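<goal> How does this chain fold?
<body> The protein record starts here
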Amino acid sequence: MNSNKPLSESWYEVAQTWVDAEAAASALEDTKSSVFSQLCLRSGETAVARAEMSVRASEEWKAHLEKISHARTAANRAKIAMEFQRMRFMEWNNSEANHRMGAKL
């Protein structure tokens, strides 16, 4: 991280990263039921309960759930980075206010 960069610019960059990660995680979460349905149809089972049980036990379904989990984790970490930048600004702002108050005394 470049210390010469304005805090607002640093925040903007990490916020953009969070927006992208959040969109990716949400898109995967939104496809969960349709992927499940497609896998049930491909299973070849005629009984719905058997098809669902077969899909839930499949490696393909587990891989999809792991992909969703990893995407959500990435989005959460990006949000933490964004909040960290916001906190840095608040600390800097408070420090500046304290310096101004000290200069008045």
Q: What stands out?
A: Residues 7-104 form one domain. The mean pLDDT is 92. The radius of gyration is 23 Å. The CA atoms of residues 23 and 78 lie 12 Å apart.
